[in-house]
Every structure is written in structure tokens, then in C-alpha cells.
Amino acid sequence: MAKTTEMRLVELMVLKQDIDSVLLYLGRSECFQFQSSLGQGGGEKNDSPEADIYKRLEQARSFLGIDDSGVSFDDVKIPGDEDAAAAENLLQSLADLTKRDFDAHENLKKVEDAYAEASSFSNLKQSYSELEKLSFLNLRVGKINPDVLDELKFAVGARAIIVPLGDDKTKILAASSKKGRFALDTELGRYGFVPLEIPKDFKGIPDDILETLKAQKDEAQKAVDEVSRERANWTDAHAEKLLKLLASFALASQLRQTESLLESTQLVYRLTGWVPAASCLEVMKSLDSLTEGRISARKYKPEEVPGVLAGHEKVPVRLSRGKFVSAFQRMIFSYGSPLYGTIDPTPFVAVFFTLLFGIMFGDAGQGLVFFILGLLLAKNVVKLGGWNKFAPIFIGIGTASMIMGLLTGEFFANEKLLEPFERFVTGLFGEPRNQILPMMPQSNPESIKRMFMFFGFSIAVGFVINSTGIVINIANNFLRKRLGKALFGKSGLAGAVFFWYVVALAVRVAALGHKPQIFDWVVIGASLFFCAFGEPFIRLADGERPVIENGLFSLVIEAIVELLETVITYLSNSISFLRVGAFALAHAVLGFIILTMSEMVGGVGGIAVTVLGNAIVVVLEGMIVAIQAIRLQYYEFFSKFFNETGREFEPYKLEYNKLGGSL
Question: Is 123 exposed, middle or buried (0-12, 13-18, 19+ CB in 10 A)?
């Protein structure tokens, strides 16, 4: 069984003149993880000249609306003095355009506001002073949210008159009797009314003034459009150059921020980090060539690092496998990182997840959909963001589903299309049948017997997965020289003996009719004893003292709890795999329902039912089955050996739009 990738701690002493090229190599090779948490969380403020230019270039890009989604650091060089001069010239040429754009928009807003204000009072022709002289009339003119105008009218009712001013209804004139002015002011206040100061002889806005303001507004809009055209032309002419400079100074800015966080003197930088052992020699040779020998490098095994020996530092874990198996790594790390030097569970996860999904989702046609989707993702014909890296998983589960579909005879929920193939295959081994493995439940005894056998098969799959988890736990503890935990406890050898012997005994009783003998109970009792009282035996085997840490009474109580937990855990872990058979049967029933409904509808409608039904099954049931397969991995498989988590290998990398890099 393969272990996690072997690592080495590398110490580099780099001259100041070489630090940029060294960091650039390490960031692009993505094989170096800094020993400390140096720089995580964004680091200190970056006030380097390169960071300033980068910030201004980014503001220019944002102002011009240039898309930078395709920008990367591939083949990007560290900027020199010529690049800085080119960036300054580019920004200077844009500065005048930026100012004129700002001024044009500000002027347009000012003119539009003036025109809107004037238009609001265009229908108020009676002199305001004359209206206000009326002894029985109280007038208010001001601004209000037009959305609440109807509510205001309803609130004042017959006590006042509300007159909208202008087309946008943002200004109103409110009139009431003198004695009702207090009630009117109260209601106006409730609805956010803002009073306006109106000249006493004001009669509204003359039409010629409105026309003049409208002409000014049109001129301001033309000025904005003209600047927009200039901006578009400038963008077409300089976008490529701007993006190139932006990437270059973003790279330099990240390097400067990293350098500011490193341990250094005036002339030398010190870098310490973890490197995969297989890449260590190549990295050191490349750095030696890159710096023309002006670098000092030392490497250490994990057991030579004081922090690791003292237990203060965890060696980062990297899992290196082929494309198919590596696609399942995120499933591992989403639960937790394995400890360094232990068994890599990724190959087992890849096999178990694919197997469980195929059993629960057996349909050759629907599996073909996943298979084709996986191929399209792998070839980047279809791009779904971060999902493309999971293309091997789609190919794997699609293949497993197609194989199971050929066994059950289902092709897009139809059991008749594959009948010729099914009869040919079964005919090679006896009497031809319409299905190799019929899944649809029926009332006859043969079908019921077959269903129970399939549930037994599901539990057998669970037995293999549970046993693998126990074996990995035992092996991991032996590798870490924890003899006690390898031998005792419910996940150690004692628990394995109990679990395996009980299963073997159940098979003997069910299949061969054997009766339990005294030696059976002795083996089961002894294994349970070492599970229940595992803690003192673990401490004894590992040389820890005292053996009974919290007294005899506490030991007995803990043993009773551990005994119950051992029995319940193994029982529940085994029964839990009945869901695999249940989902397989449910899938067959859903297929039968789709087929029956399509036949009932018939014609074009029947085809529509088939297509829609299969689409729902592929999306919704596919998600449910995937979740169940992951759940069985997490709670039944991982729980056996994931007692302590490690530290995932997260190499230093340089990425565009990630100021400071990843340390």
C-alpha cells in the first residue's frame, strides 16, 4: 500500500540580486511550501513602486472595462525600467481622457438635475404669492418619493389636495385649509416630504427657459458620448499593452510582498520550506543553474527537523497519483488531511466511490451521459469552471453505471431495448433471459429471494469497505510505531478480530447451518475484552505510565461504554450499506415509472415524458446517489482511520489577481 509523498525540508540562502528569479521559479514550479505560515492572511501593506504602478494600472483597466479573465503569469517577465517608463506613459496618456470623462458626466448630471427641477414646475402657472394670500388656503411645495404619492393622497383624504408637479412626480404641491395645516404637515412629515423655498412671485418655468435647458442637456449628452467613443478607441488601441503591463507589475508586486516577509539581511535572504523528495534534486539543480552557483542549499529529512520531532510541526502531506485517482483527492482533503507517512487512502476512495455509484445508479443510457460529459470536460469542449478537473470522476462513474445498466438491462429507463443483448449473454450460460440481473421487485418468491440476495451483496460490499478502513488504521499505527493503538481498541486488531469473526460466524450459521460453539464465544469475548479495556493495554504497549490513568472505577465505566460503542458501531456500519441496495431498487422503480408513463401517453408526448424523466433522474438522483456514496466514505470508511488529521501540502504559487502570492 502506497504512503503519502515523501517530503524534505530545504533551506536556501539566496543573494539579494537573485531573490526575484528564485521566487519566480519556486512560484511557477509549485513545489515549495514555506515552513512557517509566512505571509498567510495577506501579509503587510505593500508600498513598493511596483505595487503602486500595478494599482494604477488596475484602476485604468477597471475604468476602461477591459476583461482580464484570460490574463495569467505564463511567460510574464519581471518588469524593468523600460516597462516602468512605458506604464507611466500609458497612464499619462489616459489621464486627460479620464478627467474629461469625469467632467463630462458631472456636467451631464448637473444639467439633467436642473432640467428635471425646472420641468417639475412647468405646469404651475398661477403666481405662488397670490395663492398664498388666500385666507382659507395653506400651501406646501417640495420633494417626495413618487412611490409613496398614492399612500399620501389616501392618508390626507379630503383634508387636503395633492398636486404632482412634473412628469416624474418627485415634486408636489399640497393645499389644505388654514385650520388643517398642522394635520397636513404631520402627514407630509410621515412620508418624507422635503419643503422647497419658492420665490413669492414665482409663476412656473417659461417655455423658452425649458427649451434652453433641454438643449444644454442634449449638448452635455453629446459630450459624454464623444468621450465614450474616445475611450473605446483608446481601449482598442492599447488594451493588449495595458494587460501585458498589468500582468508584469502584478507579478512584481507579489514578489515584492513576499520578499518583505522573508527573513533577510542587507544582502542575503533565507528561505525554508518543504519540497517533495522526488523533486528535491531537480529543484536544487535548477536553482543552482538559475543563480550561476550563487546559492546555498541544505535539505533535511522530517525526522531531522526539531519541530517535527517535538510534535510542534506537521510535515505537509501531498498525494501523488494518476489522473483518475488524483481527481478524488479533494474528497479526501475536504474531510481532513492524512498524517504524513501514513497510507494514502485516495486509490481506495476512487474504487469504492465509483463502485457504490455504479451499483446505485445502474442505467447504461444515463451512465453514457456521465461518460460523455466527462470526455467533454476532459477535452475542455465544455467548461464548467473548477468542475473540469473532475472529468475523470464523471468518466469513471459513467463507466460503472453503464456496466451495471448492462447487467440490469436498463437503457434510459427502458428495459426492452437491451433485451437482445441480455438474451444473448444469458443464453451462453443456460436459458436465455430478458435481463442478466432483474432489479424490478415482483411478488413471486424468486424475485423476493433475489432482492434479499442483493441486499446481502450490499452488506458484503460494506464489509470489504469497513475492513479496508480497519486494515489502513492498523497499518498506519504500525508505521507510526504506535503498537498499542495498532493492536487494541475497536479500530485496532482486537476490533478487526471481533468484526471478522462475527461475520464469519454469521455466514457459517446462515449458509452451513453450524451452531455457535464454545470456542466461538471465547474468541468473540476475548476480542471484545481487548476492545473494551483497550486504553490501559495501549498505554502499557506504548510505554505510557500510569497504565490505569483515572482509577479502576473510571476504567470500568469507560470499558462498558467502549464495549457498547464497539458492538453498535460495527452493527450500524454494516447495516448502513443496506442503503446501497435500497437506492439500486429505487432507481429501478423510477425507471419503471418513467417507462410506464411514456407508454400511457404515447407518441410525441411519450417521447417528451421519457426525455424529461431521464433528465430529472440524471440530475436529481445523480446528485442524491453521489451524496450517499460520499456519506458512506466519510462515516463508514474514513472514521476507521481518520483519528488525527495532518497538514495539506499547499505550495507557494504566483497567480494573477492574488496579490502577495500563496505562501
Answer: middle
Q: Cell 423510477 appears where?
A: 590
- Rounded Cα distance between 301 and 10, Å, is 9
- The three cell numbers locating residue 497: 478480530
Phi and psi angles of residue 418, each rounded to the nearest 5 degrees, phi first: -95, 5
Q: How many CA atoms lie less than 13 Å away from 533 in the CB half-sphere?
A: 16
pLDDT at 162: 79
| Predicted structure pTM score | 0.76
From 465, 432, 445, 440, select the one nearest 577 (Cα to Cα). Answer: 465
Q: What is the pLDDT of residues 35-92, one digit of tens each?
A: 986 544 344 567 788 889 999 999 999 888 888 888 888 888 889 899 999 999 999 9
- Separation CA 573–CA 663 (nearest Å): 40
Q: Cα–Cα distance between 408 and 63 in angstroms, integer? A: 60
Residue with cell 533551506: 11
The set of cell numbers assigned to 600 is: 400511457
Burial call 379-395: b when 16+ CB within 10 Å, e when fewer: eeeeeeeeebbbbbbbb
Percent above pLDDT 70 for the chain: 90
DSSP three-state, residue 504: helix
CA distance 15 to 17: 5
The three-point CA angle 629-399-415 to 5° equals 95
Please report where in the chains the cell 500595478 appears, as a residue: 54
Structure confidence by residue, pLDDT tens digits, 177-219:
667 778 888 888 888 888 876 555 555 555 555 665 677 788 8
What are the residues whose beta carbons fall under 8 Å from the beta carbon of 227, sequence distance 6 or more?
97, 100, 101, 104
Are 176 and 159 in contact by the 8 Å Cβ rule? The answer is yes
Partners of 14 in beta bridges: 269, 295
At residue 493, the 3 state secondary structure works out as helix
The Cα-based distances of 368 to 30, 102, 397, 624 in angstroms read: 36, 56, 10, 18
